[in-house]
Design a protein that fits this description.
Layout: E1 5-11, E2 15-22, E3 29-32, H1 36-49, E4 52-59, H2 66-84, E5 93-100, E6 103-110, E7 116-120, E8 127-128, E9 131-132, H3 134-147, E10 150-156, H4 160-179
Parallel strand pairs: 3-4, 7-10
Antiparallel strand pairs: 1-2, 2-4, 5-6, 6-10, 8-9
Helix pairs in contact: 1-4, 2-3
Length: 195
Amino acid sequence: MSDRTAAVTRETAETDIEVTLDVDGDGDATVETGVGFFDHMLESFAKHGLFDLTVRCDGDLEIDDHHTVEDVAITLGDALEEALGDKRGIVRFADRKVPLDEAVAGVVVDVSGRPLFEFDGEFSQASVGDMTSHMAKHFARSLATNAGLTLHVSVEGENAHHEIEAMFKSLARALDDATRIDDRRSDVASTKGKL
């Protein structure tokens, strides 16, 4: 298998970001965004997806968490798209549900090259720590747009911490499944011959 890694930087007037990603990693993560709960979610994403991930972000947190979360998602999406290359041999589709106590989240993903995002549910509290809850949804949308994913996400529960964490874990598990190499396939999983 070829090396499925990427290193991507993004610098704007709002954020300065460095991301490295190894799709075939061990789940190791080093994350520093300045948003504690978001760091925890990215570490969980790496652990449960078995991705090696480093994220460093210097963002305009004096305003709020929006630009930091959004731009990290954009950069991570770019890194995932780059690491997967032509997507030759990947499984492509996956569907995962993950519970966390009373909460459950589901993710259905197609690594299609065609960005689309659908979301069903609501977060039970407006924020968790220093992260605004709706930014979890925005993270998934921005990731899907920049990685070229068709992504359907659902959440339900009573505690936003549990709902968001279940979402990040189910996203990780679904992406791990969808990006695995199918030993029976030597081409791209599409009748078009391209993803």
